[in-house]
Amino acid sequence: MAKVKVATFWLEGCAGCHMSFLDLDEAIIDIAKAVEFHRSPITDIKEIEQVDVGIVEGSVGSTEEEDVLKELREHCKILMAWGNCACFGGICGMRSTMDKEDALRRGYIETESTYQGKIPHPPGVPQLLDKVKALNHIVKVDCFVPGCPPAPEAITYALTELLAGRIPVIPIQMMRFD
Ligand code: SF4
To answer: Most buried among 27, 56, 65, 72, by the most CB within 10 A?
Structure first.
């Protein structure tokens, strides 16, 4: 049987969602057998090829992240938002509570440990968007796996459903920690 082609992306996030994927224990063996990884933080492939499933960790806070997300959307049949940052904005989305220039000034000039700080504007470096966005504010998202990070059980469930040809809807009990 042909393997399912998967690309995973890490936008504005902390890598915790990808770390949770590595925490699937023995379930990762069956999933790895059925999946062919294309561009991903664990493959270092630079191009975005046509894939069956695109999985995105992190929110969208810069022009480059917006471009990457749109390109991935054009190259995947199913797009999965992975973790609270991708689903809702999450921790990164807290920047949206303030003006972009205020956030830059606080980060580069006003922090207590900064001496003679200045806001960098090097040419060619992607610019921050005015507000941090969840994925579905920019492109169509087919399924959501919330959590910070998502529980390994939720990731296993989502991937197993996808491999069975179904769009996963994560059961509520997999979205809370008892
Ligand atoms: S959802 Fe949590 S674990 Fe995942 S990238 Fe955001 S902050 Fe990190």
So the answer is: 56
Q: What dihedral angle (degrees, nearest 10) is formed by the CA atoms of 46, 48, 53, 55?
A: 50
Cα of 13 from ligand 1 centre, angstroms: 5
110 within a domain of the structure (yes/no):
no
Residue whose CA is at the smallest distance from ligand 1 atom 6: 85
- CA-proximal residue: ligand 1, atom 2 (nearest): 148
Cis peptide before 171 (omega within 30 of 0): no
CA of residue 115 to ligand 1 center, whole Å: 30
Q: How far apart are CA 11 and CA 69, in angstroms?
A: 9
CATH number of domain containing 72: 3.40.50.700
In a domain, 149, yes or no: yes
Ligand 1 atom with least separation from CA of 147: 1
Q: Name the pLDDT band for 177 (thresholds 50, 70, 90).
A: low
Ligand 1 pocket: which of 14, 95, 132, 155 to mutate (most atoms within 8 A of CB): 14
Residues counted in the chain: 178
Overall number of domains in the chain: 1
Domain that holds residue 83: 4-94+131-175
Tokens standing for residue 121: 């504007």
